[in-house]
Design brief:
The structure holds 2 protein chains of 2 kinds. By secondary structure, chain A is α/β, with parallel strands linked by helices. Chain A contains 18 helices and 24 strands. In chain B, a hairpin with a 6-residue loop joins strand 1 and strand 2. The two termini of chain B are about 30 Å apart.
Chain lengths: ~500, ~350
């Protein structure tokens, strides 16, 4: 147990006292009270909609509570804007990175306080300041690079550098690793430890169990906007934490499809290559199998998925569907061969957010629901309704704007789209990213169920536990090449990680 | 029973066009009240200066050209594009039609009308095709391509007609000015054409596969591609519709006014876009309604009519229209945001109840 916790009542960086925040029709936070110790990492957990992000936003000045007070080092504060919060030493590192993509790293870092000389930007001074800030978080990128050319992990580093550079004493991380690979996440963990060691209080909002136990000194669980418990992490195990989060116990199960013998070969890929992305990737995929594709970010996993789905015009090599060589030049032709793709970026690639939930569900199959180009609304509604019921999405949400759905429900919509298309070959790219524990378990059960029913599944996931528990076999990519393939029995965390990183 | 009634009432109020329709009704009511009346010299009856068949039909005729093109522009804006060349397509279609008819010489009335209509549609179709192929094939933003073709099409019309005003044969005028039994001075054909095009546009957008695909592509082209939609083909179709609506408008106007010149429809593209935007179409794509765009066109014409009816200084017309357009869009966005917040609140409230 960390010393900050044991001296409870003495060293509180932040105290929430009766924080309540209502939106029309819903209470996002209901009388939430707890303390966060200085120099500690405090995790905040809960399902989507539990109020974690709202709490972060209130602390960072993006939103104001309807009632209740926040004490910063014992002094009541009420931030009207992120700017005020930042001035008081409270910074937030967002889920969605808010930056000007066309400006340089340095300009983004110092935006709002650009150094000037006689009214013009002092470029030299700017570069020096930016380099100093980047050094504090151990980042090595060129400050003159346009921000848009950086990877998500690098952009996040810039965001953290900006926070630390402002002299932040409290840093809120909102799902920081949801878009990072395992290696990048490790570096982030080091940074978090470095921050807490220097006395900064870190508030860490996350879904991921392993990192909560790895990093945090204490865990606060919220459920439906209410404070459930604040517990020292050392006094918890995973099962207990999940129970606090969902209010019931989650059963562990052994995926059913693993026991069954695989069926016919549905997809075979031979020497698939795309210049600068991946080279000579080959595998075969049978009905009823889940082939896990592991690798670090940049190893080429999503790129392989895109190539199979007809989204990479540079791809060469052969693709066989049910034993016959096929040419796939567009997602349309991939669909015609029974292939479906649940893409990694649900908001950009998976959903049309301006449309209703129903309309997204039926987008892939609208033509088959029409007569003489007129959509048969009864059939459309019936189809969408059926999938909502099967996937346990509340049917009242059928006609809701897609943006109003939680991450878990949105992800179910993307899956429903391909269930509706009756895809026999499903590529799932990070199917549970940014999804709460409850919905995640349901999605895992669905992957297992689909495989048991004879669907061939290619599963890409940066969460090794997920990949290992669901896959029949695991193929590992490293720097665009196949590093090895392991059957389920031999695929454990250690062996897969070694292949991913290239350590023999 | 009462709850379903309440539900219907709610969905009517939430409909995109409801607010705009209310504004139009109120404005028309005010105009009727303040415009005064005159004595008809023929019948001796008192006639309201605004609320009479003649003024209303004239307004509908003024609206029809813009509104018909605005339906095409709505599709275009929903798909995430823009078409600045519709005014020029309107001119080149009218001029081209008039020249073809002049070249062929006298024909039977039915043949004349058919040849005229087909020529207009063919020219506007080709213009739309050119816009679409260049925008999609060259990967240049529609704003730039159609800005270029706006000048090219008008220049072609100018050069080929030598800037003459070309008369069109009388059968065309007979059709577009037909009174359809309403009395010699009334001609409802432009109004009916406007209603028909708006109706087709509304059905296309809300009921057909193609219409849904346009909404999807405009909302998120990448996600649409990932869902197997043929994005380029859908966008090309939108360019064709945008051109063809300009062709239909050109056919009606050339017939109605009896001639066509290369300077016809100058600046119409902006009225057309303004109508769609006042009607709630989002320039970011993914949102818009054919009915609302027609109401938007009607609002612009009604404001112009109000200036005349109320004997305001006509020099202020542009200032008033500009102000009204910005106000309409700001109000619409405010309303949309409010509605979205409420619906989001309801959705999360109902989803949290399930837990």
């Amino acid at each position: 147990m960390s010393p900050a916790i044991s001296s409870s009542g003495m060293n509180h960086a932040i105290s929430f006292r009766g924080i309540t925040r209502r939106y029309p029709g819903i209470t996002a936070l209901d009388d939430v009270t707890f303390d966060i110790a200085a120099g500690s990492c405090h995790a905040i957990c809960g399902e989507n909609g539990a109020g974690k992000s709202t709490l972060g936003k209130i602390l960072a000045g993006n939103e104001q509570p309807d009632s209740g007070t926040i004490l910063l080092d014992g002094q009541p504060v009420a931030f009207k804007s992120p700017r005020e919060a930042l001035a008081a030493g409270v910074a937030i590192v967002h889920q969605e990175l808010a930056f000007c993509e066309h400006l340089s790293v340095a300009e983004n870092l110092c935006l709002g306080r650009l150094p000037t000389r006689s009214g013009f930007i002092d470029r030299h001074q700017l570069a020096t300041q930016a380099a100093a800030l980047l050094a504090t978080v151990g980042a090595t990128m060129d400050p003159a690079r346009p921000l848009g050319t950086l990877s998500i992990a690098e952009q996040q580093l810039v965001q953290i550098a900006a926070a630390v550079g402002c002299g932040a004493r409290v840093v809120i991380f909102d799902e920081p690793t949801s878009s990072l690979s395992e290696g990048e996440a490790k570096r982030l963990y080091d940074l978090v430890r470095q921050l807490t060691a220097s006395g900064v209080a870190v508030i860490y909002v996350s879904h991921r169990m392993p990192e909560i136990f790895l990093l945090s000194d204490a865990v606060t669980v919220l459920r439906d906007g209410r404070h459930v418990a604040t517990t020292p992490t050392s006094a918890l195990d995973e099962a207990a934490l999940v129970q606090q989060m969902i209010g019931r116990t989650l059963e562990h199960y052994f995926p059913a499809h693993v026991g069954a013998a695989p069926g016919d070969e549905l997809l075979r890929v031979e020497y698939l290559s795309s210049r600068g992305r991946f080279e000579d990737v080959s595998f075969s995929l049978h009905a009823g199998e889940v082939l896990g594709l592991a690798g670090l970010t940049g190893a080429g996993r999503s790129e392989v998925a895109r190539a199979i789905f007809g989204l990479d015009p540079d791809a060469t090599g052969s693709i066989f569907v049910r034993g016959a060589a096929v040419q796939i030049g567009s997602p349309r032709s991939a669909m015609d061969h029974g292939i479906g793709l649940v893409p990694e970026d649900r908001k950009r690639q998976g959903l049309v957010l301006s449309m209703l939930a129903r309309e997204n569900t039926t987008l892939t199959v609208l033509e088959s629901l029409s007569r003489l180009t007129f959509v048969r609304r009864d059939r459309e509604r019936a189809l969408a309704l059926g999938h909502f019921e099967r996937l346990k999405v509340r049917t009242g949400l059928l006609e809701s704007p897609t943006t109003a759905l939680s991450g878990g429900n949105q992800q179910k919509l993307v899956l429903a789209k391909w269930l509706a298309a009756r895809s026999s070959i499903l590529i799932l790219d990070e199917p549970t990213r940014g999804v709460d524990v409850g919905a995640k378990a349901e999605l895992h059960a669905w992957i297992d169920k689909l495989a048991s029913q004879g669907t061939a599944i290619l599963l890409i996931s940066s969460e090794l536990p997920e990949l290992l528990s669901l896959s029949t076999r695991v193929q590992v990519l490293r720097a665009g090449r196949v590093a090895g393939e392991l059957p389920r029995e031999q695929a454990d965390q250690d062996s897969v990680l070694r292949l991913m990183a290239g350590i023999a | 029973m009462t709850s379903s009634l309440k539900h219907t009432a709610q969905s009517v109020i939430r409909a995109q066009s409801f607010g705009l329709a209310m504004v139009l009704v109120i404005l028309a009511g005010v105009l009727t009240a303040v415009s005064g009346s005159h004595i008809d010299p023929m019948t001796g009856a008192s006639v309201n200066n605004f609320l009479n068949a003649h003024t209303l039909l004239q307004m509908a005729t003024d609206t029809s050209t813009i509104a018909i093109m605005a339906v095409g522009a709505t599709l275009m804006i929903i798909s995430g594009g823009i078409d600045l060349s519709v005014g020029a397509i309107y001119a080149i279609s009218g001029v081209g039609m008039a020249m073809v008819l002049r070249g062929i010489g006298p024909m039977g009335p039915v043949t004349t009308v058919l040849v005229a209509l087909l020529t207009c549609l063919a020219i506007s179709f080709l213009c739309g095709l050119a816009n679409g192929i260049m925008t999609i094939g060259l990967g240049v933003h529609a704003f730039i391509i159609t800005l270029g073709t706006m000048w090219i099409f008008r220049g072609l019309a100018f050069v080929s007609s030598r800037a003459e005003s070309i008369l069109v044969p009388t059968p065309l005028t007979a059709v577009t000015k037909a009174s359809l039994g309403l009395g010699a001075t009334l001609s409802p054909v432009p109004l009916l054409a406007m209603l028909a095009v708006t109706g087709v546009g509304a059905v296309f957008l809300t009921r057909t596969v193609m219409g849904r695909h346009v909404l999807a592509v405009g909302g998120n082209a990448e996600a649409s591609r990932y869902a197997g939609l043929r994005v380029d083909r859908i966008r090309l179709g939108v360019f064709l519709w945008s051109g063809i609506t300009a062709g239909i408008a050109a056919f009606l106007s050339a017939g109605y006014y009896g001639s066509a010149t290369s300077s016809d429809g100058t600046g119409y593209e902006l009225y057309v876009i303004a109508s769609a935007v006042v009607g709630g179409a989002s320039l970011q794509g993914g949102k818009g309604s054919a009915i609302s765009s027609t109401l938007g066109a009607l609002l612009i014409v009604l404001i112009r009519q109000a200036i005349r009816t109320l004997h305001l200084d006509q020099n202020y017309e542009w200032i008033i229209i500009g102000t009204a357009m910005i106000a309409a869009v700001v109000l619409d966005q405010g309303g949309t945001r409010l509605l979205a917040r409420r619906m989001a609140g309801e959705a999360s409230a109902s989803s949290s109840r399930t837990k």
